[in-house]
Design brief:
The protein is an alpha/beta fold and about 500 residues long. The protein has a domain of about 150 residues: Isoleucyl-tRNA Synthetase, Domain 1 (Orthogonal Bundle), CATH 1.10.730.10. The chain is built from 17 helices and 18 strands. It is elongated and about 85 Å long. It starts with a strand and ends in a 13-residue tail after the last strand. Bound molecules: 5'-O-[(L-methionyl)-sulphamoyl]adenosine. The site of 5'-O-[(L-methionyl)-sulphamoyl]adenosine has 20 residues, from strand 2, helix 1 and strand 12.
Length: about 500
Amino acid sequence: MARFYVTTPIYYVNDAPHIGHAYTTVIADAMARWHRLLGDDVFFLTGTDEHGLKVAQTAEQNGVTPQEWTDRTSERFKEAWSLLDISYDDFIRTTEPRHYAAVQAFLQTIHDIGDIELGVYEGLYCVACEDYYTDAQAPDGNCPIHGRPLDLLKEENYFFKLSRYEQRLLDWYAAQPDAVVPEAKRNEAVGFIKQGLQDISITRTSLSWGVPVPWDDKHVFYVWYDALINYCTAIGYGVDAERFATWWPSVHHLIGKEIIRFHCVWWPAMCMAAGIDPPSQVLVHGWLLVGGEKMSKTKLNQIAPAQLVDEFGVDAYRYHFLRDQSFGPDGDFSYEGMVARYNADLANNFGNLLSRVATVVGKKCGGIGPAPRADSPLADLARESYAAAAAAWARTAPSDALDAVWRLIRETNAFLEANEPWKAEPGPDVDAVMGDALEALRVVAVLASPAMPRVCDELWQRIGLSGSPSSARLPDAAAWGGYPGGLTVTKGEPLFPRKQG
Ligand code: MSP
């Protein structure tokens, strides 16, 4: 059986979940759901990143212990994902004992082979990034991302000898053309390595909120160094070799473009040092911007998913973010754009198709959906839609996958307009047209279910089918002719009532 292991970054708990976090999580969820339709064995991991200075400081500002703070905020991520119908298989928290054990085992292995050494670190640090900058990267002493003054840190740290991995990383990338997609991001990762790699400081003594270093109790691990290992913790690293080997190294890490260096330089080197293969693929997407800017707490331009779900519903929310922006470049979110797309794609196309079909079946077919024709003019379109959607999901292009499904919706609407069954007398001609349209709707319900699981369940029931399109299995479920006919079709309320623009 094919396997599909997909991850999101684990999110920092200093911030409440916003539509940027949800952007990655919804894409990962839709991919997981697509692979479940394919019959693959899927493992979908998300979670929260709970250590580090930033979280410790946020807890202090809020007058609670870091543990209390992380318990509270981690819960907010779980609530957001439940609101958005995120079907994760595991939610990892880096403060869990299983993660401490995995981090300690992983890094002890690297210490044992001699690639972790003690040294003194002095450098400019940005707490918001939890990252160091060189003078060249921050000539004015301010963080290039946050614009705030950097702190000068000096302490005795353990260093990972990243510099020893330069050539091995370059060789690995040369042999793995798909290790990072899109290609521009792969070039960026290789570019980082070619510039020359410095050893990295991986422990802290100035902070106690972290995973303790097993060989030196004065130190805790630097947050990024513990965080990356979550991808291994969750599949049994160090405790269940068989389970680990089942899922690793064939994994798809979805990340935003600002954490390429960690995932595409540090992480593969850490894996090599620990004696495991690097992750097979990192999929890098751009930022979702609001008013042309990245969302941030300080700019007060963050939008919580609930604000939009309340207004549009969960399926329209998911559809919008999967469809509006292609995976890779940055994209701007606007409320007006969301209303326009909702009205065009969901109210006028998807919702309208179901409502037309149900109305005509009610009036002309006694409310019982007829069976489709084997030689329907829609059959080829349905096949093409499936093939194009499958190809798009395979290259992580959710927007293209949905576009392919919407082509079938539009063509089915056009087919109804050309045939005008609402004007015809009841009889075999109307039955034939309506059977074809119902079958197209059935295929749409299956193909759109990774994006809009609830509404596709609803559509499935309204055309009289039992069960759920999410339990269907491809490719059979997309084959023309699956709608049996003879089922009760229900009109119901509009799936997507039109919004005032
Ligand atoms: N904790 C680290 C990740 C550790 S992974 C081992 C971290 N957390 S974060 O809370 O800052 O989340 C960053 C991720 O959230 C991005 O890489 C991206 O996946 C998602 N996004 C956050 N804001 C975003 C946008 N505005 N647009 C798109 N994605 C964004 O970094």
